[in-house]
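Q: Could you predict the 3D structure of DUF1134 domain-containing protein?
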Amino acid sequence: MPQNNERVARRSFIVCLAMMTSLALLVPVTPSFAQAAGHVRVKIAKAALLVGGGAGSGVLTWRGRNYPFKLSGLSLGITAGATISRLDGWASGIREVSDFTGTYSSVGGGFALVGGVNGVHLRNEKGVTIVLQGPKAGLEVAANLSAITISMR
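A: Sure. Here are the predicted structure tokens for DUF1134 domain-containing protein:
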């Protein structure tokens, strides 16, 4: 009788161990509710005289997938000129890809004569923060408040 009990206990232990191993392999390492940063690449063209407007497109690379998006914006303040910018950076605070879309606000300024460097720090209502920098070409003097809307293509 004692041998039967040992055999049953051993089998139960092996079955339990196999089930736990299978469960560990099936559950993802990063839960879906965890935040992950994404790489952002944007091209923007804008023109302004006191009130400015701009439009562009870009790609968010997040969790191994590319998500193309378009953006449009409006700026108000001391702004004059026209530029084209190619910006590169990171978006943080993304829980799901839909968090990336929305209206972002920024306060900034800059100067470009033929070529210059542009940097921007944006935040939307869902808590996503985008930090971008890169070269811009054209003529612009700016000190303004901007609102940028991002939507998926």
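Q: Anything worth pointing out?
A: The mean pLDDT is 80.
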